[in-house]
Write a structure and sequence with these properties.
Distance between the termini: 55 Å
Structural class: alpha/beta
Largest sheet: 9 strands, mixed
CATH architecture of the largest domain: 3-Layer(aba) Sandwich
Number of strands: 26
CATH class of the largest domain: Alpha Beta
Length: 489
């Protein structure tokens, strides 16, 4: 597979066939190639060449997909930036990635020294770049930013070999062909949206419709109009769709399956959705560090609700103890992953890379077990990550911003259950001796530095945060405090 030449191959074999569409655009394969060629020319005019990084800060549109393939056409890598990030977060990612250019929908509020800013509306005006670069397998393709224990987002380096391996696995697992039509509703700044929702169906010869912001009022109309054969979503969306008024009875005959990831779905939700719409939900598990997916319930075989499926062919899953050694069958331990899809490492983070990639195994930090049939059951999430409506929120990142206030002595963020979003972040703080600070001041400070979805829904000031016997914050106690059932350890 050659991602850099994929638009050329599609245009050559079926120039008038459907390729990429969104709410306002519907490109044939020939038109897609033309758009990618001009976008590549526009990027080249900004100084982008092989080995550079292009930041793409766009909502879900065809322009995002065009920009992605334009970067690859030049031999450059792409780093997607969430359009909802605060200016300081945007500046950090662009700087850390050393982005040569950033593609945006509107002028930026963030200052990006050394980075050219290109409006999406300017992509079509670039000179056509007819030839795609010779891109080796070990060339960097994607930089996906994910937060970690340091509180600072870090760039997951995925090369073309990673993406080719991952896409081949997705195509095989979903039996994708040129007859398939992906309806993309997950954000394209996530690896799932790029790999499973976009690149894989295009490689298989199919087409994609990039939906704008999810709306339960228009979703099923979009499914019917597009003739989508599959889509991926998170439990929050499936909950909303399952609870729509009974009179909503869409034609779902085109849809072969739906994919659920990012957070566990309850057995009740799976049954409720499938029985109402007749669409099987395929649950899986994966990380950005693994290019997208590592386990999946079989599409054409027994699916086990409550599990995230079997290892994808070409990947191995090991359940290990604290030393990295395999545990006894059926016992819980850390989930380790090995395969050609595993990242090359974290950008500019050799120590964190060494701690995460050990002897060829990706240490996920997630706790799970394999059942008697080899299906993976997730027991707990790594560290204290909060998943809000499919968005990963890392408490350390929020806490690091809180500690910028000199009055703050201690800060801890935990997740609070929410009936729709699954969880929302809640902040507990204590103040330094003699300091005075009110909750509105803390909230105003956070609003300046964090994306809206990361903002704590509640802030509580305590005299002192509880500690466990080894002196660490007692986050289990804080979680219980939210439910009114708490006793310090």
């Amino acid at each position: 597979m050659n991602l850099a030449t994929l638009p050329d191959q599609r245009a050559k074999h079926d120039p008038q066939g459907p390729s990429v569409a969104d709410d306002n655009t519907n490109l044939t394969n020939a038109e897609f190639l033309d758009a990618v060629s001009h976008a590549a020319g526009a990027l080249q005019a900004c100084g982008v060449s092989a080995g550079d990084v292009v930041a793409i800060m766009l909502p879900n549109t065809t322009s995002f997909v065009v920009s992605l393939f334009a970067a690859w056409r030049l031999g450059a890598a792409a780093t997607p930036i969430n359009p909802g990030l605060a200016p300081t977060e945007v500046a950090y990612q662009a700087s850390d990635a050393a982005a040569k250019a950033v593609i945006v929908e509107a002028p930026l509020a963030a200052e990006l020294p050394g980075t050219s800013v290109l409006l999406a509306s300017e992509l079509a005006s670039g000179p056509s770049h007819e030839d795609s670069a010779e891109v080796p397998d070990d060339a960097l393709a994607l930089l996906i930013y994910t937060s970690g224990t340091t509180g600072r987002p870090k760039g997951v380096m995925l090369d073309h070999a990673n993406l080719n391996a991952m896409c081949a696995m997705v195509i095989d697992a979903f039996s994708l062909t040129k007859a398939d039509h992906s309806l993309l509703i997950l954000p394209l700044f996530h690896v799932n949206g790029i790999v499973a929702g976009t690149v894989s169906p295009l490689l298989a010869g199919g087409c994609i419709t990039v939906a704008g912001r999810f709306s339960p009022k228009s979703f099923w109309n979009r499914v019917e109009q597009s003739g989508a054969t599959y889509f991926s979503a998170v439990p929050t969306i499936y909950n909303i769709l399952a609870d729509l008024p009974a009179e909503i009875a869409p034609d779902t005959s085109s849809v072969r399956f739906a994919v659920c990831g990012a957070a566990p779905a309850s057995v009740e939700l799976l049954e409720k959705f499938e029985s109402r719409y007749g669409i099987p939900i395929i649950e899986g598990y994966g990380l950005s560090e693994g290019s997208c997916a590592s386990t999946l319930n079989p599409l054409n075989g027994p699916r086990k609700a409550g599990t995230v499926g079997l290892p994808l062919p070409g990947q191995m899953i090991r359940i290990a103890d604290a030393n990295g050694d395999p545990v006894a069958d059926g016992e819980a331990g850390e989930v380790l992953i090995q395969g050609p899809n595993v990242m090359r490492g974290y950008l500019n983070r050799p120590e964190e890379t060494a701690n995460t990639l050990v002897d060829g195994w990706l240490h996920t930090g997630d706790i799970g077990r394999l059942d008697a049939d080899g299906f993976l059951v997730l027991v707990d999430r790594a560290k204290d990550m909060i998943i809000r409506g499919g968005e990963n929120i890392y408490p350390k990142e929020i806490e690091a911003v809180v500690y910028q206030l000199p009055e703050i002595g201690e800060a801890a963020v935990v997740g609070k259950a929410h009936p729709v979003y699954g969880e929302e972040p809640v902040l507990f703080v204590s103040l330094n001796s003699g300091a005075a600070l009110v909750i509105d001041q803390i909230r105003a400070h956070l609003t300046q530095s964090l994306a809206k979805y990361k903002l704590p829904v509640e802030i509580t000031i305590l005299d002192e945060l509880p500690k466990n016997p080894v002196g660490k914050f007692d986050k289990p106690w804080l979680r219980k405090k939210l439910t009114g059932d708490s006793q310090p350890a």
